[in-house]
Structures are given as C-alpha cells and as structure tokens.
C-alpha cells in the first residue's frame, strides 16, 4: 500500500509544514482548496490531498479530479466545514468575541501580518485570500475583503496604487499604508541566452513569454509598459499563456518552456533563473475606515511600525522597508 494514502496530518502539522498560520489552513479548508475530514473534534488532511493542493498551486489551477475519501466522516460541504470550525476554534480567540477579517493578496508578508493580528488578540480572526491586486480591490468594493494588498502601476502618472484605489473605491472611506517595496522585472534563463534586457525585447519574434493572469499586479505592470511602448500584447508569443503566481512563472522559464516571464526578484532566488530588475514597485495595504474597525486599523499600524514585524520581514530578505507603516493616503 502507498504510504502516502495512509498518512494524514493535523491542522497544526500542516501549518508547520507549509510555514503559514493555522488560520490560513482553516481558510484553505473552508474554501475547498484543501480537502479535509473530521475525526471526532479534530480535522485531518491526507498526505495525498496535501500533495494535490501543492501541485494545483504550482500549476496555477485547481486539481482536475479530487481523489474521493473513504473515511466515515468526509468533509465535503460548507456546513461540515463550518461545523468543524465551531468544534475546534483557533487558539487565542474566544468564539463569541471574534470577527473574521479577510486579508487578500499573495505576498508572504501577508501571512506574517495575519499572524501578528492573531497574536494581538483584539477580537479578530484573520483569514487569507490569494487573489491578485486588481481582483482584491474589486472584492473589497463588493464587501468580500477587509484588508487588501496592491501593487498596481499606473503608466499615465507613474504612480503605484493610489490612482486605482481612488477609482475603484470611489464613495468609500479608506486608508492606504505602505507595507513594503520590492524589485519587479523579468525572469530569464540562466546566463540570459536571448539577451533580454527590457520590455521592448518581448516583441522580438524569437522570444516566447509566460504571462500572469488578468487582475494581478504583475499583469497590470506588463500591460502598462507595453501600452506606453506602443506594443500590442497579442503580437507577443506566449502572451495568452498564464500562470497564477510568481513561482509558477519563474519555473516555466527555468524549465525552458518560456524564454521570459514577469515577476518579483524574491521568486528568482527560489527558482533557478536570472532576474532583470526594471522597476521598484510599491506594495501597499488598503483598509476601509469605519467606526467598527478602528481597533483593527490601529493594530495594523502598530504592527507595521514595530521593530518585531520588521525584523521578521528582514529575515525573509528582498524587501525595502524604509516606508513600511507610512500612511500614504487617507480619506477624510
């Protein structure tokens, strides 16, 4: 018998393996991205389902055919997931006093922020959503996200984020604070055999690229750069081929399935590719200003400005924290 089919993990063990908070594991289970079942009051995930989740993340999609469970109490419905949350509440927060707060975005720094909010124990239970910047802002407008991270470049002004936030959240009261800055640019194969140096090189007939999904900050950056250079995306080979995260894009380049992809420097250090830095991008947080979330806003500002959080960020490297915790824009 395959050992993988008989091995299972608790939520605590999964959080340790994936280097995320336990609340992130709960969120993945609740959204159906990670299959789980209940044994008494404890949730467990089989190793084979953990591997399926990892593979779906690498390929940028959802597993094509989930493997059916044979346990007596499978966890296949939203009601059962909600019941499991009730039976095994996350530590630190009494169930009667908590409110869910959804943090949307893909950078690892947001997992640290979620953990910091949890440790503050101010009555909020952070859950993670992994949508791209533009889609996250739209989700926020529709009431489906509470804290949103954005890195959206506006070619007309040369600014990041504020022009988009003002347009999408028009009529709402909000605050924008800087989380970090990081380098964005192009992934190329080791040694850069195609001598790719700039955005305009993408239109060369010998170049094949791998793109990001519509709504991601990386896709907005690319499309704005192409627009300013007068380059039509549909004339670039591979423009319609997409992946859902930086690691997946860099991996396609590393494996020789594309010559170039767009992303951040940090991912290049994890995958065997070279990186051509082209812009310093601003990565900001957006939070609605409401009387009922003042404690949350104050907590996040304290966290971002505190040395403990910044030291954790420095340990991950690749981030510029010189503006972290600075309020960049605030509606009256």
UniProtKB/TrEMBL annotation:
SUPFAM superfamilies per record: Periplasmic binding protein-like II (SSF53850)
PBP domain boundaries: 115-304
Helix-turn-helix domain segment(s): 9-56
Pfam family, one: PBP_like
Coiled coil: none
InterPro entries on file: HTH_17 (IPR041657), PBP_domain (IPR024370), SinI_DNA-bd (IPR010093)
NCBIfam families: excise
Name of the featured protein: Substrate-binding domain-containing protein
High-level lineage: Bacteria, Bacillati, Bacillota, Bacilli, Bacillales
């Amino acid at each position: 018998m395959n050992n993988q089919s008989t091995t299972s993990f608790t939520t605590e063990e999964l959080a340790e393996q994936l280097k995320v908070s336990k609340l992130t594991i709960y969120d993945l289970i609740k959204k159906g991205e990670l299959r789980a079942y209940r044994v008494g009051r404890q949730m467990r995930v089989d190793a084979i389902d953990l591997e399926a989740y990892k593979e779906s993340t690498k390929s940028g999609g959802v597993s094509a055919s989930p493997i059916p469970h044979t346990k007596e109490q499978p966890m296949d419905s939203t009601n059962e997931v909600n019941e499991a949350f009730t039976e095994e509440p996350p530590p630190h927060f009494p169930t009667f006093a908590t409110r869910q707060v959804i943090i949307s975005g893909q950078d690892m720094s947001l997992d640290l922020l979620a953990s910091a909010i949890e440790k503050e124990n101010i009555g909020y239970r952070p859950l993670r959503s992994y949508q791209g910047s533009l889609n996250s802002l739209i989700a926020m407008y529709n009431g489906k996200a509470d804290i949103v991270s954005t890195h959206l470049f506006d070619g007309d002004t040369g600014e990041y984020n504020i022009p988009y936030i003002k347009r999408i959240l028009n009529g709402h009261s909000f605050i924008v604070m800087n989380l970090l800055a990081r380098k964005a640019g192009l992934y190329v194969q080791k040694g850069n055999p195609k001598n790719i140096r700039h955005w305009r090189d993408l239109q060369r007939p010998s170049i094949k690229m791998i793109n990001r999904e519509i709504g991601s900050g990386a896709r907005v950056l690319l499309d704005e750069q192409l627009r300013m250079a007068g380059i039509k995306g549909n004339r670039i080979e591979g423009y319609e081929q997409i992946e859902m995260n930086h690691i997946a894009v860099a991996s396609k380049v590393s494996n020789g399935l594309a010559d170039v992809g767009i992303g951040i420097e940090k991912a290049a250090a994890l995958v065997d590719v070279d990186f051509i830095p082209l812009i310093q991008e601003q990565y900001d947080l957006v939070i609605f200003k409401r009387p009922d979330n003042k404690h949350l806003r104050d907590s996040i500002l304290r966290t971002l400005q505190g040395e403990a959080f910044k030291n954790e960020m420095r340990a991950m490297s690749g981030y510029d924290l010189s503006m972290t915790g600075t309020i960049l824009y605030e509606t009256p």
